[in-house]
Amino acid sequence: MDKIVRFKVGDKLVDSTYVYRVIKIKIAKVFGGNREKCLFYEPFFRNDKCNSLICSLPASNIMEANLRKPVTQKRIRDTLKLLGKRKNGETKISFSEADSFLKENDPLETAKLIRLLWFEKQSEDKSLSTRKKNLYENSLRHLIEEVSIVQKISIKKAENKIKRRLKKFSPVLGHL
Q: 24 near 9, Cβ under 8 Å?
């Protein structure tokens, strides 16, 4: 993400947690008293956790904040293919490894994390720890949102598409 990306009202932004919609762009005073173009954005998909959240950020800090535009259709297709592929040697994942997957803010990396957690969830006699379960659910929700935006389908259809791919990979069906 070396180049400067231009945004307009209505554009979507993605970070490692949510998909957002740009709702306003205006020149505003920023830290240090300088005037700069700022983006105001809100979560595209509202829920109980972020029902009234509105964020703002100087346009020059977009890359530092790890915000990006949604990926291409091809990237989403590649991501979905990855979810259904079995990989030899996949094992449990540590939290530091999981954090590095998420910091990439890349659907392919998120899919790898989901696949690892899914495999762990399916191959263990017991369920995931609370922390891993939250990590799995948040990563899954994030990928569902981006698939929904890019493929212009409902959240439910995106969720079903992802879960079908995971079930292909699953040693035990139906454990989502």
A: yes
Report the 10 Å Cβ neighbour count for 94: 9
DSSP class per residue in 64-113: TTT-B----HHHHHHHHHHHT---TT-----HHHHHHHHHT--HHHHHHH
Cα–Cα distance between 165 and 10 in angstroms, integer? 31
* Digit-coded pLDDT (tens) for 52-70: 789 999 988 998 999 999 9
Helix (H) or strand (E) holding 61: none
End-to-end CA distance of the chain: 34
- Token pair 């703002």 is found at 56
| Nearest by Cα to 80 from 5, 168, 6 | 168
- Over range 103-132, report the average pLDDT: 84
Q: What Cα–Cα distance (Å) separates residue 93 from each residue in 113, 148, 160, 176?
A: 8, 27, 25, 18
Dist. CA 103–CA 147, nearest whole Å: 18
Kindly calculate the radius of gyration of the chain based on its CA atoms and give it in whole angstroms.
18
- 37 with 56: CB under 8 angstroms? no
User: What is the rounded CA–CA span in Å between residue 31 and residue 33?
Assistant: 6
How far is it, in rounded angstroms, from Cα 163 to Cα 149? 17
